[in-house]
Amino acid sequence: MSKKAIPLMLAAGLVLGSAPAVTFADPPAPNEQADHAFDNKVIKKINAERLYERVDLLSKQPREAGTQGEYDAVQYIKSEFESYGYETELQPFTFQAWDGGTSSISVNGSDFADDVHTFNGSVNGAVEAPLEYVGLASAEEVPDTVSGKIALIERGEISFFEKVQNVIDKGAVGVIMFNQEGTEDNNFGYTYQGQDIPAVAIDHEAGLSLVNQLQSEAVTAEVSVQDAGTIDQTSYNVIATMKPHKNKDTGQIVTVGAHHDSVAGGPGANDDASGVSGVLELAEIMAKTPTDTELRFMTFGAEEKGLVGSYHYVSTLSDNEIDRISAHFQMDMIGSRDSGDLIMFTPDGQKNLVTDLGASAGARVAEVVEYGQLGRSDHVPFYLEGIPAALFIHAPLEPWYHSPEDTLDKISKEKLKETTEIVGAAVYRIARPDTPALENARVAPGPVHYEFDDRPL
Ligand code: BES
Ligand code: ZN
């Protein structure tokens, strides 16, 4: 248990493994109506239509970090926070983006395919060699004869890393990979450290034409990659702060976050326009609700590039601020109609103040929320600073995850609303000005039992 969590856990009566700070002389019988009423000031105001409309607005175009799509989203989020009355900061930071430069293929001396995509991470260079088709490039499939040749590979079944490594292990000098059946684009492919041959991607149709050509004649191909490499790009965090009532300030801070960037080419309705909409909804409601705790609502950029925005945000905090942050709530993918139940993930798979509050808020709003172990989102940098943090997400995941199909029509208003209610009720439990005196009141809901769930993703 982190040192700074102790006073608040005492205040909230949620000390794990020891007696509650204040015990009820005569424990009240569970009273669902009273428990529900406890949260009403916040959760009654959460509006499913408003939540859905924000996802609609945000998911009209992809929001990949560093692009105009992200910038448009950032401006929208900032103006929303400001319209609710928040002091709002745009926090720029740089991250390393991949620039594929110019790549081309020629076949028996003539230009081939209009559109050639450079693998992310490919080395620069030009190689000319005989072309050999090696199917899906599994270890068993790749023949020794590919040595000194360019390998023509079909995408699918095994990872990019394995395919490229299998042909390198047999001595190939370049890679042309074509997309799977049923696809039209060529926007894919990664090479990894030590995989130092030029690698490019083409679409399915172009790939098939090469396979056919190889059946009737020998083909010499040239693969060329020029000016590829990483470049600095700018992304932004958006941070909205609300100070507590002057005479009631406990000195504590609670942060609530989501990421506004999407993957390239994906509208990211669930990942994570849904979480951004939840953050904005709670910000809008909490702006009119007196608190004894400073609230910071924030959306991060470049999460999909490696949690870059949240690492940057945490790096800008002073030791004093880190000590005062009692909890971080992360909402990421909270609205898909095709995913499973809500779960709270912590990077170490341990309960903390956030999961305690989330589980009991869940019991009041809908049902107890279980917890599990996972990083993969912006709660990680907070956790690494010793701040109690958890990711609120539904699992198993929907099939549209990170695809162009992650669109508004897959969003459930009910899931959006319920998750936002649970997080809102948990945040309000800390921020409401009647804690800790509230512990003496019979209406205060107690801790609940909740379990570890090793749920598949
Ligand atoms: N929303 C996902 C997090 C996620 C994915 C949680 C799958 C649970 C299951 C997030 O936006 C994401 O995709 N994160 C990246 C990690 C990051 C370090 C690039 C991922 O998981 O690939
Ligand atoms: Zn996400």
Q: What would you call the structural class?
A: alpha/beta
**Tally of DSSP helical segments:** 12
Total tally of structural domains: 2
Shape designation: elongated
Provide a descriptive summary of the structure in words:
Residues 1-25 form the signal peptide. One of its GO terms (molecular function) is metalloexopeptidase activity. This protein is α/β, with parallel strands linked by helices. The chain contains twelve helices and 16 strands. It has helices at 5-12, 32-43, 48-58, 68-83, 160-169, 204-216, 269-286, 308-315, 319-324, 353-365, 379-384, 413-431; strands spanning 87-99, 102-107, 110-112, 117-118, 125-133, 150-154, 174-178, 199-202, 220-226, 229-242, 253-259, 294-300, 325-331, 341-346, 370-373, 389-395. Strands 1-10-12-11-13-16-14-15 form an eight-stranded mixed sheet, sandwiched between helices. It has an eight-stranded mixed sheet with strand order 3-2-9-5-6-7-8-4, sandwiched between helices. Strand 2 (102-107) and strand 3 form a beta hairpin. The longest helix is centred in the last third of the chain and has 19 residues, at 413-431. Mean pLDDT is 92; it is low at 1-29. The structure holds ligand BES and zinc ion. The site of ligand BES has 14 residues, from helix 7.
Write the layout of secondary structure elements.
Layout: H1 5-12, H2 32-43, H3 48-58, H4 68-83, E1 87-99, E2 102-107, E3 110-112, E4 117-118, E5 125-133, E6 150-154, H5 160-169, E7 174-178, E8 199-202, H6 204-216, E9 220-226, E10 229-242, E11 253-259, H7 269-286, E12 294-300, H8 308-315, H9 319-324, E13 325-331, E14 341-346, H10 353-365, E15 370-373, H11 379-384, E16 389-395, H12 413-431
Parallel strand pairs: 5-6, 6-7, 7-8, 11-12, 11-13, 13-16, 14-15
Antiparallel strand pairs: 1-10, 2-3, 2-9, 4-8, 5-9, 10-12, 14-16
Helix pairs in contact: 2-12, 3-7, 3-12, 7-12, 10-12
Bound molecules: ligand BES and zinc ion (ZN).
Domain Peptidase M28: 237-425
InterPro entries: M28_fam (IPR045175), PA_dom_sf (IPR046450), PA_domain (IPR003137), Peptidase_M28 (IPR007484)
Keywords: Signal
